[in-house]
């Protein structure tokens, strides 16, 4: 099964990316995911279910530790293949 995660971290700072946003970006870019799109107002990534769920766990933990006061996320099933786990 493939999953797509969309997320934002808050509080926002339009002048400079806050530490929690940089940590979130680092977690997602380091994970074994494909189709990663990091932007100023939202971020998305896709990958195998285990990789996405592991990245979401790390994203939540590390972003909160780095000062995020709110993390909004959505996870969707985007497809399932017999050989994907």
Automatic annotation (TrEMBL):
It comes from the Bacteria. InterPro entries: MTH1187/YkoF-like (IPR029756). This is Thiamine-binding protein domain-containing protein.
